[in-house]
Amino acid sequence: MLVVMEAGARPEQIEAVVRQIERMGLKPHPIPGAHRTAIGITGHTGSQDPSNLENFPGVKEVIHVTHAYKLVSREAKPDDTIVSVGGVEVGGNGLAIVGGPCAVESLEQTRAVADGIRRGGGQLFRGGAYKPRTSPYSFQGLGERGLEILARVREEFDLPIITEAIDHESLQLVDQYADCIQIGARNMQNFSLLRSAGRARKPVLLKRGMSATLEELLLSAEYIMSEGNYNVILCERGVRTFSDHTRNTVDLSIVPAIKRISHLPILVDPSHGTGKRNKVLPMSRASIAVGADGVLVEVHHKPEEALSDGPQAILPSTFAQLVTECEAIGRVLGRSLQPALAASR
Ligand code: PEP
Ligand code: MN
Predict the structure, then answer these.
(1) Mean of the per-residue pLDDT values of the chain
(2) Is the pTM here over 0.90, yes or no?
């Protein structure tokens, strides 16, 4: 259910509706928009009939949302959501370019890559401290020590940090240290982790599962939002198909499909999407052309020595070219690169 308030509804009228929804044992989600406020209602309605809210002053209409996803939909919020990641905006008319290594390996390596991201014009830094690896014998990440390195690098290079949480324990730590919590493809349907992320303070970058449909991705975002965290960024990172010339198949058409039905920003990750260094630049260009709010790519100053995902890591020089080309393509579409945070060095 969605309660749409009149354009001129007063704050106390909105408050009265919110209180009534709570009295009914349901959860209200006020969604302020450019033209009007809507209030999403979640929870089991049971014998309650929220349609009666139509009689409250300031209420324009009560809409029965037929899709399974509600808070993520444009019905609930017609204008684009802009998520601030440590002061850098993702969504709207801007473009955000995220770069960094697959994994934080050492302070020296993380600094070297961050320097390349900063000089290359990227605005956000990524790097995993907790790595969900297919083999238990592969490098699993530095854990909390990796988060400390990321926090240090953020201070030095003024790059807000996105890093993955793989379970409840790491989620608490990532929420403390980072600017954005990444939920990876393998955890996209870890519903209890999604609920915890919904109770975290930081925005969430939610990656599409490797065989998830658009609806499943949106419902996972709905899990996070239903707990009260409305700062969700989606990320297409390729899905499994019969094609074997790339690691996964980047499903670019999900970008305009999502944009039609959801207000949430969406990034594309062509690194995991293709698994091949030489395809990251062309697929980044294509991602911007198709309407993505930015790209997230893996960068390493010595890819041949990387402890994970070396074959898909681009060099800092390619990253700089990627930023320049994505900016040029974005300009054609009326979009501009978000400013990086002012360097304090
Ligand atoms: C990653 O971003 O390093 C990662 C593990 O990605 P995904 O969850 O998309 O495989
Ligand atoms: Mn990786």
Answers:
(1) 96
(2) yes
